[in-house]
UniProtKB/TrEMBL annotation, chain A:
GO terms for MF: transmembrane transporter activity
Signal peptide (residue range): none
Lineage: Bacteria, Pseudomonadati, Pseudomonadota, Alphaproteobacteria, Rhodobacterales
Coiled coil: none
Annotated localization: Cell membrane
Transmembrane feature ranges: 12-30, 69-88, 95-113, 158-175, 240-266, 286-305
InterPro entries xrefs: ABC_transp_permease (IPR001851)
Example of a GO cellular component annotation carried by this entry: plasma membrane
Species for this entry: Neogemmobacter tilapiae
Record-given protein name: ABC transporter permease
Automatic annotation (TrEMBL), chain B:
Source organism (scientific name): Neogemmobacter tilapiae
ABC transporter domain: residues covered: 19-254, 271-519
Membrane spanning residue stretches: none
Keyword Membrane assigned: yes
Family classification: Belongs to the ABC transporter superfamily.
SMART domains in alphabetical order: AAA
GO molecular function, one term: ATP hydrolysis activity
Bilayer disposition of the protein: Peripheral membrane protein
A cellular component annotation (GO) from this entry: plasma membrane
Protein name (record): Heme ABC transporter ATP-binding protein
Length: 322, 520
């Protein structure tokens, strides 16, 4: 594999890792607060459809983004209602919402546009277009670093940079702010938060809302930046891979970035089977590459790479008791 | 009525009251947990609230801390009417609560736990710095040493409790409520706690100590209020009462704190343990070569501070953990490793087991009483209608019989185990294990979390089993219980037997030294 090929693959790695990263950070807020959210996938899908549709109608990617966030928040609110207010089973709620999203997206897209469950192709301002970073042109010809900066780092949509910026921001919020302390506490021992006079439900609702916003951005990125419009099941399991990355990263924001980049790298490799074949000297089936994130996650869960301890109160509705 | 009891619920003190509750009532469905409670706690005192489990002590304190809302009644703090709809209001009113089960975040530092909910601003750094300075001051003033940067999960329970107290003091609590604070502590830790509480009182704080242990009331409190079945029976000065008088108030009748039993008539050796060793999952040796014998018709008590190998001894003999050494039961060697070493094989061999943690090992909390009554013995022919099916009618009939015989309340076989009080749960376990007719009964903490009435009953059953010629191994952290029940006492320390004592001759001091590892 030559340097140009590597650059190409890294470029698509970043592109493909972005929705994973957004969804992974979304899941991180929720799970750190003790609400398991298997419905990341459904929220992304709903957001992708909503943003694709609104962007197609209005011609504005930003309007699409807003619609995507709203749609995702709506699903998140149902999840919150089921798991926080009514203390239902979080896994069942998440799975159910995934099914709802899978059906509703195609239904709505078909009835609006009649194009086989797709939204119309987007172009121009209806998409988030690539941004050239400062000095990209100038350093383009510097050996090694130049192509890396120009090809890999520069030339992505604003959402990619937003996702990257969210990593340190999330770290700072979690570990340097009062909100973060309480958020982590409520995922570990909600009774401690409750007896300290802080609302458990309020914190969990806040976390679910943040998850909704981030999943909304992830879905909008899928339909208005990575691709040009919504297509049936276009998230293709990214919500689950993001969950896998979250476990792989042991619920830590910076590690989540690396996990998502790694899993994005696998996805990029899956599109370049010729390169993989050249590297390992034999034909590797694409499904195997697709499965790698899950295999790695199982390895982590089995305790081969340190121990992945989820937030202790995760998945359990909080019932007041002494 | 015992002497020195005033029925007004008000001790004879002229000082203003830190807390005054008037006419507090609270019902959970049909259960009246608190009925028209009146109590007044003078400022700067340690006030005990004592009562059996289920007497309504914890409910009352939860109302005071805003965890529950009272159906009726008024709360006065420092003389002012103060409604407490939630914990936030309680904290604002200067009330701090140390719950029986600590409310700490395990993977947070001490500092983070103290600050949680009482932060200074949106950013943490200033809060943490302020709390660090404040903690230093508090730990100096009140003997409350803890490392502010230690993770809670690395601390002993005694230290975790100090963190809870620090949390309350950091919130400037003037009134500190402790719910059964010594249940998890070693005697040393408990003594330290009482020193801390007295220090707090001397600084003008008011302390409310909820407990069902008479000894602690006598040792640590200035006044004591007694609750029984949801009502306040009376308030007395501790100096003017006695454990017997309090016990009588608690249960409403005379209680035998001493167990009545005839001298033992030991028969043949039933259990012979030689050089028993247990190594735990962290490769730490928990039992370091324990040898002991128990004869038919005697109770061997194992005294010791929790965590010195008693649990491992019970688990190894009960077939729950693997061990090395030699164990014979009525002359038959028992396998200590491999397939033959499991709970069922031990029960078949004639060893009954009342485990220390009845909620984890003794019962399935979500299952009905009648199902629990058969566990461990469910394969016995008396419960089997065939090779596959169970004869549920037979189990239910047996349960009804045992519930009557062991006075399990309420006697409803279909009620889930978790719906019974601690004492009645324990009676179910005791009934099951005794009625299965063991030659040797292993008993761990038979009366932990059990109210006085049930303690008396369970003790009688244990003595009756001994008099029926069975061998009994009794493990308890309650020294009173060991001393009054046992025919011989072994003291364990650090996985070893420190020595044997005769309960008629020894005293708590001597046993205490042995429990601390000093052979003298």
């Amino acid at each position: 594999m030559d340097y140009a090929t590597l650059i190409q693959i890294l470029d698509s790695t970043l592109r493909l890792a972005t929705p994973l990263l957004l969804a992974c950070l979304a899941g991180l807020y929720s799970e750190r607060a003790g609400i398991f959210d298997i419905g990341l996938e459904g929220k992304m899908l709903m957001a992708a459809m909503a943003s694709g549709a609104v962007a197609a109608v209005t011609g504005s990617a930003w309007a699409g983004l807003g619609a995507g966030i709203l749609a995702s928040l709506l699903l998140g609110a149902v999840h919150g209602l089921a798991s926080i207010t009514f203390r239902g089973n979080q896994l069942i709620s998440g799975v159910a919402l995934n099914f709802v999203a899978s059906g509703v997206t195609v239904l709505v897209a078909q009835s609006l546009f009649g194009q086989g469950g797709r939204t119309p192709p987007l172009s121009g301002d209806a998409r988030f277009n690539p941004i050239t970073l400062p000095f990209a042109e100038a350093v383009k010809d510097v050996p090694l670093i130049g192509p890396f900066y120009f090809e890999v780092l520069s030339g992505h949509s604003i959402l990619v940079y937003a996702a990257l910026a969210l990593v340190p921001l999330t770290w700072w919020v979690l570990f340097r702010t009062r909100f973060g302390l309480r958020l982590r506490a409520v995922g570990e021992n909600p009774a401690a938060v409750d007896t300290a006079g802080v609302s458990v439900k309020g914190l969990r609702w806040a976390a679910v809302a943040i998850t909704g916003v981030l999943c909304g951005i992830a879905g909008a990125y899928m339909a208005t930046a990575l691709q040009a419009g919504f297509g049936k099941e276009m998230t293709a399991g990214r919500g689950y891979i993001a969950l896998a990355a979250l476990i792989f990263a042991k619920w830590r924001p910076v590690a989540a970035l690396w996990a998502c980049l790694l899993f994005g790298f696998f996805q990029a490799l899956a599109t370049r089977t010729d390169v993989v074949e050249g590297l390992v000297g034999m034909k590797v089936p694409v499904p195997f590459l697709d499965a790698l994130p899950y295999i790695l996650t199982v390895v982590v869960l089995a305790g081969f790479i340190g121990k992945a301890i989820p937030p202790r109160a995760g998945g359990e509705p909080y019932v007041k008791e002494r | 009525m015992a002497q020195g009891v005033e029925m007004t619920g008000r001790p004879a003190t002229a000082a203003p009251f830190a807390i005054e509750l008037k006419g507090i009532s609270k019902a959970f469905g049909p259960v009246q947990a608190n009925k028209d409670i009146n109590i007044a706690v003078p400022k700067g005192t340690i006030h005990g609230i004592i009562g059996e489990n289920g007497a309504g002590k914890s409910t009352l304190m939860s109302i005071l801390y805003g965890f529950y809302r009272a159906d009726a009644g008024e709360i006065f703090i420092g003389g002012r009417l103060t409604p407490i709809p939630d914990s936030q209001s309680a904290i604002r009113a200067g009330i701090g609560m140390v719950f029986q089960h600590f409310k700490l975040v395990q993977n947070f530092t001490v500092l983070e736990n103290v600050v949680l909910g009482a932060e200074e601003g949106a950013l943490l750094n200033t809060s943490l710095a302020k709390a660090r300075a404040e903690l230093q001051r508090l730990s100096r003033d009140y003997e409350l040493d803890v490392n502010p940067d230690a993770l809670i999960e690395d601390l002993s329970v005694g230290h975790q409790q100090r963190v809870e107290i620090l949390k309350a003091l950091y919130r400037q609590a003037d009134i500190l409520i402790l719910d059964e604070p010594t249940g998890v502590l070693t005697p040393d830790e408990a003594d330290h706690l009482f020193r801390i509480l007295k220090g707090l009182r001397d600084q003008g704080k008011t302390v409310i100590l909820i407990t069902h242990k008479l000894r602690e009331i006598m040792e640590a409190t200035d006044n004591v209020s007694v609750m029984r079945r949801g009502t306040m029976v009376g308030t007395v000065k501790t100096a003017e009462t006695s454990p017997e008088a309090l016990a009588e108030l608690m249960v409403g009748r005379k209680v035998l704190l001493e167990v009545e039993k005839k001298p033992a008539t030991p028969g043949a050796v039933v259990l012979d343990v030689q050089n028993l060793r247990v190594v735990d999952e962290h490769k730490v040796e928990r039992l370091k070569g324990v040898s002991l014998q128990i004869r038919a018709g005697e109770i061997l008590g194992i005294a010791g501070v929790a965590g010195n190998g008693q649990s491992e001894l019970l688990a190894a003999l009960g077939g729950i953990t693997k061990a090395t050494g030699a164990v014979t039961l009525k002359g038959e060697a028992l396998p200590l490793t491999g397939k033959g070493a499991n709970g069922r094989a031990r029960r078949e061999a004639g060893i009954g087991h009342i485990p220390e943690d009845r909620q984890a090992l003794g019962l399935i909390m979500d299952f009905a009483a009648w199902e629990n009554m058969a566990f461990g013995y469910h394969h016995r022919p008396q419960y089997g209608a065939g090779a596959v099916l169970m004869d549920n009618a037979a189990v239910r009939a047996e349960t009804d019989k045992q519930m009557a015989a062991y006075d399990v309340r309420p006697p409803i076989a279909s009620l889930a185990a978790k719906s019974f009080s601690g004492g009645n749960q324990q009676k179910i376990v005791v009934a099951r294990e005794i009625e299965s007719g063991p030659d040797l009964l292993l008993i761990g903490q038979p009366t932990r979390g059990v109210d006085i009435g049930a303690i008396e009953f369970i003790h009688k059953q244990i003595v009756a089993l001994r008099d029926a010629g069975k061998a009994i191994l009794l493990v308890s952290v309650e020294l009173d219980e060991i001393m009054s029940l046992s025919d011989r006492i072994l003291v364990m320390f650090d996985g070893q037997v420190m020595g044997e004592r005769d309960p008629e001759i020894t005293n708590e001091r001597e046993l205490g030294l042995l429990m601390a590892g000093m052979t003298g």
